[in-house]
Amino acid sequence: MGFSVAEVIVDVATYHVDRPFDYAVPQEWREIIEAGCRVKVPFGPRNVLGFIVGLKNETEVPPNKIKPIAQILDIEPVLTEEMLKMAKWLKNETICYEIDALQVMLPSALRAKYEKIAVLQVELAKLPQEVQTLFGKRQKANFKEFEKAELLPVLKELIASGCVTIENIVKQQGSVKEVRMVEITSDMQVLEKALESASRAAKQRQLIIWMQAHLGEIIAPHHLYEETGATATVLQGVIEKGAARFVQEEVYRDPFTKGVTRTQSLQLTQEQNVALQAISKSMDAADATTFLLRGVTGSGKTEVYLQAIQKVLDEGKEAIMLVPEISLTPQMTERFRSRFGELVAVMHSGLSVGEKYDEWRKIQQGKVSVVVGARSAIFAPFTNIGLIILDEEHESTYKQEDSPRYHARDVAIWRSQFYQCPVILGSATPALESFARAKKGVYTLLSLKQRAMNQAMPTVYVADMREELQNGNRSMFSEQLIEGIRLRLERREQMVLFLNRRGYSSFVLCRDCGTVVQCPNCDISLTYHRTQEKLKCHYCGYEEHVPQICPQCQSEHIRYFGTGTQKVEEEIYKLFPEARVLRMDVDTTKHKGAHEEILQAFGEGRADILLGTQMIAKGLDFPNITLVGVLSADTSLHLPDYRAAERTFQLLTQVSGRAGRHDKPGEVVIQTYTPEHYAIELSKMQDYEPFYEREMFLRRRSGYPPYYYVALVQVSHEDVMMAAEYAGRAADWLRANLSEKVAIIGPTTASISRLQNRYRYQCLIKYKIEPNLIPVLQRLLAMYRADWIKQGILMTVDLDPSTI
Ligand code: ADP
Ligand code: ZN
Ligand code: ZN
User: Fold this and answer.
1) DSSP state at residue 516
2) How many angstroms separate the alpha carbon of residue 754 from the centre of ligand 3?
3) Residue 80: exposed, middle, or buried by beta-carbon count in 10 A (0-12, 13-18, 19+)?
4) CA distance 660 to 656
5) Among residues 164, 162, 160, 81, which one has the least CA distance to residue 120?
6) Using a 6 Å cutoff on CB, does residue 300 contact ligand 1?
7) Of 320, 357, 744, 793, which residue is the least packed, with the fewest Cβ within 10 Å?
8) Of all atoms in ligand 1, which is nearest to the CA of residue 301?
């Protein structure tokens, strides 16, 4: 019985073998093995990691050719059946290798790169005597030892009956800690008896009486001592009377740095209530509706999420809550933990490998029911999902830029269909695609038009920086913004100053010959970092010391220009020496927990001004912020990207929404050199729909999404001629194989024409309906994998590029 052949997807990137291979299952494993387990299998000259994706009893491989699995790494699957299905879908949807689709769903501790640090252990203490003796006095055993002792079938039974627990221990960074806990008996009679027999030990009696009010609870000894005043000796005495016992508990590395105060559900506003009712109804009907919750900033979307999740938990189901980036997770996590306490796990890139693994395990073992996290949390290994939420659904961070190039929104919708549960896409400024779908009825639109406590939307002023210059103001602050800052400092109110970072950081320029110091590997100017007196490339990490003389003309008139956050900070201090500024950017948030610290300090009023980049545009909810300044609205406007206007509008609306969220009215000053641009004009009104109409008109005219789909093929090579040549071949091939209705633009140089020493070309494919597209692109990729790659070409295909 059992299965004798396993289909395994191997982690072999160089061979590009993208199909399951058959391996023989060792005799003793046949009854036990399951799909979704990781294995080591011989592949070519070495053993590689693989995932079992199927089991069977027949194979076309001749008996003398089939190789046995070398080692089985899991006794319980790390991937569920749902995930195996999802991987197949992802592979097709994003044209990636199945191995990439499988590994993206797992915490890195379980992927090939780290697999050595995750070791299975079996807790021996609870084993039946006859088995336990085989292991001497040890508490734990590696499960390979069970394999050697031919005890696997027993082990599987023991797991099923709950006699043993099995654990992938990540041996890094402190690991899961085992601690001794006190478990109080849940038998009242036992306690009565203990109380009697302790008639002459007053302290023991005291403790037992306390225990009577805590039947069945598990508590850490030091908590128990604090709580009851008992000593270890007293506890020992009580334990000997059978009233309690010591148990081992796993304690997870706690990524939360501080405790939270609990909050209750708020009384919903009329609009919030309508939204919640619609979502509840869909949950009851299990109709997998995707809702687009469009609510102006401060309208209380989060409260709707919280109450919808409460309903999910009441029904014994689980919820995934995605936020666009790690800088937003502290605030969101706190709001979630204050409502749901220990039921919340977090997942984002700021956690260590070990912490991420622990959070993942909590989810997998059903110890939590809610996960708050960034993009990858969409793969949380829940098995009974009742709701998935994407907050700020328009954010580009939901799209992964490496293989598999998935969008979390698509994965969310796939999973919601699997579990027949709703999805909520929330935003004040939905992606054009999403709003268009809502208008067509593909998504169900829910609107929150008022702020939750009926506060006015902030007043927005646009400062024309050209005019400022004409009036002799050469500083980076308009008169209006300076006046605004002065007033807030006087009134002791808080401000957010927002710097549109991209293309806006300091660079070093020679005043004599105009040379800008560039990265030797990329077509990008280097960014000046004052604290280290260094120039750095933000794309490849290259750094060098600030040159004293121009590398081109040897002039000494070389200095830094442009405006980074550090420069802004200096300017503020020049104008307002008394101002207290907190800076939040890549430099100040390098260490772990830095985001939390900065936000906490600001929340506690330890600064007047929060100055930062993209990181501070969203999510902040502080009552005392009454002024938001956008130092230069234009930078994101002039990026060579069809979404530039949309991005700018979204950013301006988001950041403006930080002002006046509570009782004090808010004001926004947007500084720009192009006040007449519609994205800026319309962001003054803080109204999404006029912008939507305008932008849709332009998209239709120029043939961009959502009217057309786009796909992007990028080709790179160290040699510029080679890159151009193969990009040309790709374009020709696409033209020959796709229908005439498809527009193929290119090859052109990519917007960053050289990156990490590689020249980059691209072809843009625009289409409406092209059933052949995926197969054609798959064939192009096959050609590349079989041949082009040997020439040093790298090629990527992205079916939903977030930038072009
Ligand atoms: P959004 O996510 O839409 O920007 P939030 O959920 O952050 O808005 O809500 C903005 C503010 O309004 C928060 O301080 C929140 O606590 C408060 N709030 C939300 N809903 C209500 C409500 N029903 N009653 C009172 N205050 C609310
Ligand atoms: Zn020079
Ligand atoms: Zn570089």
Assistant:
1) B
2) 9
3) middle
4) 9
5) 164
6) yes
7) 744
8) 3
CA distance 24 to 41: 10
**If you write DSSP's letter for every residue of 692-735 in order, what string do you get?**
HHHHHHHHHHHT-TTTSEEEEEEEEESSHHHHHHHHHHHHHHHH
CA distance 146 to 514: 71
SS3 327: helix
Count of residues making up the chain: 804
Query: How far apart are the CA of 98 and the centre of ligand 1, in A?
Result: 42
- Where residue 492 falls (left for φ over 0; alpha for ψ -120 to 50; beta otherwise) is left
User: By C-alpha distance, which of 428, 456, 487, 463 is closest to 627?
Assistant: 487
209-213, 417-421, 587-591 — which is least confidently predicted? 587-591
Helix (H) and strand (E) counts for the chain? Answer: 24, 33
Dump pLDDT digits (tens) for 251-298.
555 555 455 677 888 999 999 999 999 999 999 999 999 999 999 988
Of the listed ranges 147-156, 217-226, 362-371, 732-741, the least confidently predicted one is: 147-156
Q: What are phi and psi of 398, to 5 degrees?
A: -75, -10
Pocket probe for ligand 1: among 267, 269, 302, 321, the residue whose CB has the most ligand atoms within 8 Å is: 302
Q: What is the mean pLDDT of residues 498-505?
A: 62
Q: Is the CB of 319 under 6 A from ligand 1?
A: no
Non-local (6+) Cβ contacts of 230 within 8 A are 203, 206, 207, 224, 238
Pairing status of strand 527-529 against strand 534-536: antiparallel
Please state the separation of Cα 442 from the chain's center in Å.
26
Are the CB atoms for 288 and 422 separated by under 8 Å?
yes
Q: Is 429 in the pocket of ligand 1 (CB under 6 A)?
A: no
End-to-end C-alpha distance for the chain, whole angstroms: 54
For residue 219 the two structure tokens come to 């508590």
φ, ψ at 381 (rounded to 5°): -80, 45
| Separation of alpha carbons 488 and 754, rounded Å | 45
Q: Is residue 117's pLDDT more than 50?
A: no
Residue 450 CB less than 6 A away from ligand 1: no
pLDDT tens string 371-421: 999 999 999 999 999 999 999 999 989 999 889 999 999 999 999 999 999
Q: Of all protein residues, whose CA lies closest to atom 21 belonging to ligand 1?
A: 452
Amino acid residing at 103:
Q
Angle of CA points 453, 459, 462, to nearest 5°: 155
- Domains of the chain in start order, with CATH, are 5-110 (3.40.1440.60), 113-171 (no CATH), 178-250 (no CATH), 270-448 (3.40.50.300), 459-506+562-699 (3.40.50.300), 709-798 (3.30.70.360)
Contact between 383 and 389 under an 8 Å Cβ cutoff? The reply is no
Q: CA nearest 482: which of 466, 500, 501, 463?
A: 463
The DSSP letter of residue 795 is E
pLDDT tier for residue 718 given thresholds of 50, 70 and 90: very high
Mutate to test the pocket of ligand 1, among 303, 305, 307 (most ligand atoms within 8 A of CB): 303
Q: Is any atom of ligand 1 closer than 6 Å to the C-beta of 660?
A: no
87 DSSP 8-state letter: H
Strand order in the sheet with 459-464: 459-464, 667-672, 625-630, 494-498, 609-612, 581-584
The model's pLDDT over 654-672, given as tens digits with 9 standing for 90+, comes to: 888 888 888 888 999 999 8
In this structure, which ligand is nearest to the CA of 557? 2
Dist. CA 363–CA 695, nearest whole Å: 41
**314-341 pLDDT, tens digit each:** 999 999 999 987 666 677 888 899 999 8
Measured at the alpha carbon of residue 650, what is the angle toward residues 648 and 654, in degrees to the nearest 5? 120
**Distance in Å, CA 546 to ligand 2 centroid:** 14
State the distance from the centre of ligand 2 to the C-alpha of 570, rounded, in angstroms: 27
Phi, psi of 21 (to 5 degrees): -115, 145
CA dist., res. 402 & res. 404, Å (int): 6
515: pLDDT strictly greater than 80: no
- ipTM for the whole complex: 0.95
